[in-house]
């Protein structure tokens, strides 16, 4: 298990679907990303697209040497990756206000409002109705 760095950090919280991520961004780090105590590639397994989603705010600014620790709960892997990206972008803006225009332009600061639609009474799912029979 990775050791938690000590000292000053920048904080960001992000949400996507039902996932909530809390990110700590430690400056002067080694570039590692730890999610719930595991390295990012181990946490997401073979899903490299999720890891590339997570590091896209850092790649957008073309900066390095940060240690990133994440606590994420709820949702599935895609929702968690989106929540981490949102939280990381917010932490980078908190670290330096000049990052805000590029993060905003890339769409990383906008909370994705799409949620699962609730099931309605009399229907099988949110919109699927029981099969209609004429006779």
What does this structure look like?
With 135 residues, this protein is of the alpha+beta class. The chain has one domain (10-106): Ribosomal Protein S5, domain 2 (2-Layer Sandwich). 33% of the residues lie in helices and 21% in strands. The protein contains four helices and five strands. It has helices spanning 40-44, 48-61, 77-95, 100-106; strands at 10-16, 19-27, 33-35, 38-39, 66-73. A five-stranded mixed sheet has the order 1-2-5-3-4. A hairpin with a 2-residue loop joins strand 3 and strand 4 (38-39). It is elongated. It comes from Ktedonobacter racemifer DSM 44963. InterPro entries: Ribosomal_Su5_D2-typ_SF (IPR020568), Ribosomal_uS9 (IPR000754), Ribosomal_uS9_bac/plastid (IPR023035), Ribosomal_uS9_CS (IPR020574), Ribsml_uS5_D2-typ_fold_subgr (IPR014721).
Task: Please write out the topology.
Elements: E1 10-16, E2 19-27, E3 33-35, E4 38-39, H1 40-44, H2 48-61, E5 66-73, H3 77-95, H4 100-106
Parallel strand pairs: 3-5
Antiparallel strand pairs: 1-2, 2-5, 3-4
Keywords: Ribonucleoprotein, Ribosomal protein
Pfam families: Ribosomal_S9
GO biological process, one term: translation
């Amino acid at each position: 298990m990775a050791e938690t760095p000590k000292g000053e950090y920048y904080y960001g919280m992000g949400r996507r679907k039902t996932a909530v991520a809390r990110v700590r961004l430690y400056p002067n780090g080694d570039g590692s990303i730890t999610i719930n105590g595991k390295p990012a590639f181990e946490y997401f397994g073979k899903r490299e697209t999720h890891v590339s989603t997570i590091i896209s705010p850092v790649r957008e600014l073309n900066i390095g040497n940060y240690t990133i620790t994440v606590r994420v709960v709820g949702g599935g892997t895609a929702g968690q990756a989106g929540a981490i990206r949102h939280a990381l972008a917010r932490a980078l803006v908190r670290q330096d206000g000049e990052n805000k225009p590029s993060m905003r332009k890339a769409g990383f600061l906008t909370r994705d409002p799409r949620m699962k639609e609730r099931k309605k009474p009399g229907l099988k799912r949110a919109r699927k109705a029981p099969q209609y029979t004429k006779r």
